[in-house]
Design goal:
This protein is of the alpha+beta class. The chain is 38% helix and 21% strand. The chain has 19 helices and 21 strands. The chain has a seven-stranded mixed sheet with strand order 17-18-16-15-19-20-21, with helices on both faces. It starts with 5 loop residues before the first strand and ends with a helix. The relative contact order is 0.13.
């Protein structure tokens, strides 16, 4: 291997699985390989739904052992959830899962102190019942929070166990609803009014900042030779995925697809208008001063839950049958919080169609087609709304993440948006993670340079829109009554 090529371990944790990927980066080369994949299975305890964070950490160690010698390690994961540490730095219980019902009704209590309009104007974050702010409010009277001396978001908690150093990476911190997207610092007034102690959080870090060295015990367990630095990346997986959007110029929208669909724009400044709040758009922070202006859509969670309920049939065959099912026969609101909880998803989708006066899908293929049509419709609306609210027109939609494997969804998204869709890379979060590490070590240049490297090295598929968008407008009207 050329001396100019370096290896980086990207720990990429999703809601259903984790993996350690190894990226090999040179001035004109970028290769990614999977070293280890492991399940992420939440556990329902008497006190509620919890993450098995010790199992995740064990998976990370196994992955680093499988990765072999690397020049740096970076960690990204889902957002909003956290672990609490006591005065000795020990974890106080398993972190609560964002789908735990403890935040039901909490938002209304928060808004009684800081009205929703003021909260949005200060933090720019969309309403989601599981935002960290609401989780902390729900936990206010608990013994754990009373004993806690430090709060670490999930990637920062694992980084702490690897290095012994504590920090709060900014892109993930921006999902807590406690960051001001204009100053890119804590929203001190909001926290003060809600009685949230910001001293619980470790100092803020930027993507690319050093996050410590692997501890001796970690080196011994993984067989790595030190020193091995850990580098802060865009530790919210969506921040890393957006960094890996292979776009040129600024006139693009992106959809990060997986368990969730995150659809929106990359902007220089946040959009904090009341109209933006009403449309439930969020302003999360990205690399190099950028803002991820996007809407959360339920995503392939809908299909994942249905497939689980059907006993895990062959997905390829199911998608082939769905492609033959009648288009736009029935659609549901893919952003509806009614689909947030697990269980009985086929029945819940059928019920939503019944209540809206549409034909009820019967077979798995019909339900699947309903889901994919609904996701494409939600993608269309998010891309249209983002352009209007931000005053930022686009010519192309980039789809990255796991949904790029679903050719039917990508084509339907192009059809619905009336714009070409460029699909890829699939492992966008891991690639963004790797590239931030490589940039921190001087191997690649700015964000535009990172994206040029992606265009030149990663397989991409282009989907052209078919037909007009009138039928999609009509389907949207069925949902909204417009």
């Amino acid at each position: 291997m050329s001396a100019a090529v370096k290896s980086y371990a990207a720990v990429d944790l999703g809601a259903s699985s984790g993996r350690v990927m190894v990226g090999r980066v040179g001035p004109d080369s970028l290769e990614l390989a999977e070293a280890h994949r492991f399940p992420n299975r939440p556990v329902r305890l008497p006190e509620g739904l919890r993450w098995d964070v010790l199992g995740l950490y064990a998976g990370v160690l196994d992955g680093l052992r499988a990765a072999g010698q690397v020049d740096s390690v970076g960690i990204d994961s889902w957002a909003v959830d956290y672990g609490l540490l006591d005065a000795d730095g020990a974890l106080l219980g398993n972190p609560v899962h964002y789908r735990d019902p403890r935040t039901e009704g909490v938002a209304e209590k928060v808004w009684a102190t800081v009205p929703a309009e003021e909260l949005y104007a200060a933090t720019g974050l969309q309403y989601a019942p599981f935002n960290t702010l609401y989780q902390l409010t729900a936990a206010r009277s608990t013994a754990q929070l009373g004993e806690a001396r430090r709060l670490l978001l999930m990637p920062d908690l694992l980084t702490y166990w690897l290095t012994g150093e504590q920090g709060t990476e900014l892109t993930n911190a921006s999902t807590t609803q406690l960051i001001d997207p204009r100053t890119r610092d804590w929203a001190h007034d909001v926290a003060s009014r809600l009685g949230i102690d910001l001293d619980l959080f470790a100092p803020l870090r930027q993507p690319g900042d050093p996050a410590g060295l692997l501890r001796g015990e970690v080196l011994e367990e993984t067989g790595l030779a030190g020193p091995v630095p850990v580098t802060a990346v865009g530790s919210h997986d969506t921040a890393s995925a957006v960094a890996a959007v292979p776009a040129s110029g600024e006139r693009f929208a992106y959809i990060c697809t997986g368990t969730w669909s995150l659809a929106g724009l990359e902007l220089d400044t946040p959009v904090l208008t009341e109209e933006s709040r009403a449309a439930n758009f969020t302003n999360e922070l990205g690399l190099d001063g950028t803002v991820r202006y996007l809407r959360n859509i339920m995503g392939l969670w809908l299909l994942q839950e249905c497939v689980r309920a059907w006993g895990d049939p062959d997905l390829g065959a199911l998608l082939l049958e769905a492609s033959k099912a009648p288009a736009l026969r029935s659609v549901v609101d893919a952003g509806d919080a009614a689909f947030l909880a697990p269980g009985r998803m086929p029945e819940r989708i059928a019920e939503a169609c019944r209540l809206s006066g549409q034909p009820v899908p019967g077979s798995p293929a019909e339900v699947t087609r309903c889901i994919l049509d609904s996701l494409a419709l939600a993608h269309r609306k998010a891309v249209q709304d983002a352009q209007r609210l931000a005053g930022h027109a686009v010519d192309v939609v980039h789809v990255v993440g796991g949904g790029t494997r679903n050719a039917l969804l990508c084509q339907l998204t192009a059809d619905a948006c009336g714009l070409p869709v460029v699909a890829g890379p699939t492992e966008a979060a891991a690639l963004g993670n790797v590239l931030v590490q490589a940039r921190a070590h001087g191997l690649v240049g700015d964000l535009a340079g990172m994206r040029r490297l992606l265009v030149n090295t990663q397989p991409l598929t282009r989907y052209e829109p078919r037909g007009g968008t009138e039928r999609w407008r009509a389907a949207q009207a069925r949902l909204t009554g417009d």
